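Running co-folding for NFD.
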Amino acid sequence: NGTTCGLKEIMIGRCYEYQFVKYPSATNQHNIKNCTALYETFESAVRYKSHCNMNMSTYKDYFDLALAGVHVINRAMFWSGTYAVTHAYSGSGLNYITLEDTLAAAMVNGLVWCGNENHTEGFDFNSCPNNCKDNRWADLAFWGLASKTFAQLAAGEIFVILNGSQLHGRSAFRNNSYFSDFELPNFRRHGEYRVTKINALVLHSPDEKVMERCGEKSLRLLEDLITNNGFEYACKDDPEELILIMCGNQWEARECQIARRVLRQA
Ligand code: NFD
């Protein structure tokens, strides 16, 4: 549970890299964000604050500033239990755009931080209480609001990659996941930027047991929830392009060897 050393420098550096190296063509004079100002907005939300007093509005100004004017049309991609393959597939925003491909999330993805009202620097550099007994919202303050804000920016057709091979009683679509609690309920239902269709892509890890397919168990619940809310729904098990990505890392799996043989003959 170590916190990230150099949080400020990493965040500001990532912000410059995002705007001027990774996506220079998307960055024109009109939409350049001031990286120092963004960091300062983030910092003033958390520095000298006690972690367990955070809530879902703590980082509001930061997201308002970092995501001002952004809409993600027909390319927003969500994930639950499929972090690695989703990001390989989204291609850093080339194919699809995940939360982590937005500036607001890219600046802090994978970092650990928390404010401390007693520390001279205003941050706790040793450890963060990641479990506030009396305030569940404290732990959700950043990623909960990030997820909610991103869901509100998604328009048109959206995609979610789910894991149909979850073990230990977990399901592909699970209560208390960020996807079910903060994303699905916040998709826009009206206006020019409404969500029209939700495409679920369900993955089964090569050679592992298939626990759920489209239309089964929790995926049936998901389908009902989505259609009852007036969105179109489609579900696909194991799209080929995703199988190929998974097999790229699991060449030795039996199912991947079969896929390889078929590909050679094609
Ligand atoms: P989950 P979920 N690497 O898989 N979101 O539906 C890293 F860095 O159970 C994004 O609850 O699905 N983190 C973030 C991981 C945080 C990894 C929260 C991994 N390999 C919510 N695997 C974020 N970027 O940190 C799991 N986690 C963490 C949004 C993950 O950070 C995304 O837009 C999260 O704290 C996505 O559509 C926790 O495990 C959805 O919510 C639960 O991941 C994923 O949340």
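Result summary
Residues 78-81, 83-84, 99-100, 105, 109-110, 143, 147, 150, 177-179, 183 surround NFD (CB under 6 Å).
Residues 136-153 form the longest helix (18 residues).
Job closed.
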